[in-house]
Amino acid sequence: MGEILSNMSIVWTDPWLLFLTAIGTLAGIYVGAIPGLSVTMATSILISFTFKWPVNDALALITGIFMGGVYGGSRTAILLNIPGAPSAIATAIEGYPMAKRGDAGEAIGLTTVMSVIGGFVGIAALAMFAPIISSFAIMFNSRDYLLLGLIGILLVGTLSGESFAKGVFAGALGVLIGMVGLDPMTAEGRFTFGNVSLMGGIPYVAAMIGFFGVAEALVQLHQLDVAVVRQKVDRIIPKLRDVKRYLGLALRTSGIGTIIGALPGTGGDIAALLAYDHAKRSTKNPDVPFGEGCKEGLVAPEAANNAAVGGAYIPMLTLGIPGDAVTAVIIGALFIHGLKPGPLLLVETPHLFWFIVGALMLANICLLVFGLTGIRIFTKIVECPKGVLIPLIIVLSAVGTYAIQNNPVHIYWMLLFGVIGYFMKMYGFQVGPVILGVILGPMMDSNYRRAMLGARGDIGTFFWNFVSHPITLVLSIALIAMLLSQTPLMRWFYRWRAARRHPGS
Question: Which of the residues in the chain have pLDDT under 50?
Answer without folding.
Answer: 505
